[in-house]
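User: Sequence in, structure out. Go.
Assistant: Echoing your sequence, followed by the structure tokens.
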Amino acid sequence: MDLDQIEKLNDLKQKGLITEEEYQQAKERILGGQAKAQPELNAQPHTIMQTNNYDYAMVLHLTQFCSWIFPFLGIIVPLIMWQSKKDDAYVNQQGKVVMNWIFSAVIYSFICIPLCFILIGFAMLAVLFVCSVVFTIMGAMDANKGIIKNYPMTIKFFDVQETPTSALGVGN
């Protein structure tokens, strides 16, 4: 129904995920008045693929796996991605989520390494590895749905404004 789509658009505009212009264009398309493309002066063809914030945030989470290719790349790539789009409120929050987990995982690793001398550290490192994989994938899926949520077991270095559970349709 048109009303439901317009309400969803309004929610996106309220959250600052789309601009007023994008809102009006999408609303016109929904209502059947296809937005008229106005040629811009000196318009050039777009050669760069446009992505929305949700896709970008999902990739931001998944770049943590870059450290499997080269050490510390899983810290550097997400940090660069976050800083390059930090002015976008949604990407900024997702970047904070990712950095909170990366810093937490590094601290947990430093705790586990000395414990390897009494063997329990090996098991703890294995659990930390599994948690890193699972939490990263869960975070990427949430980010692609527009949900801002810290990973479990995260030390909160950066203040993250998580999506309220009422907005997720949980409880009432």
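User: And one key feature?
Assistant: Residues 34-41 have pLDDT under 50 and may be disordered.
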